[in-house]
Amino acid sequence: MLPETPPSPPSSSAPTESRSRDAVTRTAARARHIGLTLGPIAPPFLRLATAAQDPGLLGPLLALPEAVAPGLPLKARGAHAIAFLSYQLAGILALLALDARLGAAPEADAAGLLWAEGDERKLHLRLARLVPISDMAEVGERLAGWAAPFIIAIEGETGLAATAQWKLVADSLALAFLESGRALGMESEGREAGLAILNDVRSLLFSPKTGFVRIIGQGDGRAHYFLERAGCCLAYQAPGGGLCDNCGLHPPATRRQRLAAHVKHEPPA
Questions:
Q1: Which domain holds residue 65?
Q2: Which of 14, 47, 144, 192 is the most buried (most CB within 10 A)?
Q3: 230 lies in a domain?
Q4: What is the pTM of this model?
């Protein structure tokens, strides 16, 4: 989806409340599985460090995979939980950062979460303030800061090692920037922004094995990009489960062959 109006350069000053609300409204409309609002971080919203310790949010997150892959062992449910959560959060961060009319990120420690069981979008994110960013490293810092308490909590609940979870968070960030850039009509910029974060050795999200696979479609001759994962969601541990096509456990040639099958028979655009 292309922006409705031609973008203007991001402002170096803090966004006004009206510009922040406009950006959040645009981002919320594009986010598929997470609600997003701008306002005070007050009950029922919990700041993320607190939310990670709340059974009312962590419990449903760990139970979520049962709906799509019944029988997953506890560690695999932990992998799915951190992958799902970090992908939703990274998607919001990527859309806000790539929004050429704003180019912003939530202020550090200015975010809260809510689990609403009765809603279609069960996970809701509340942002208190948006601030301008000078480079994409700040987006990586936000996601790492948001994910860290959940990684600690999930490791404690499931035994899934933090190192394995950080790989999944890095994969989520890459996928979020790929898809957000695509939605905004700037896929190349989205991929570049994601890789800039993942290739930064100073970042907790440093993941040189996470990247993108370029496949030329035989039907349309266009380049198609897919996420190349460093981590594994452990879905193969479910009864009758198998490895995802882009799983990091596949040999590179096998992974490329499986991904190529997705575009082999696509008709020309």
A1: 17-209
A2: 144
A3: no
A4: 0.89
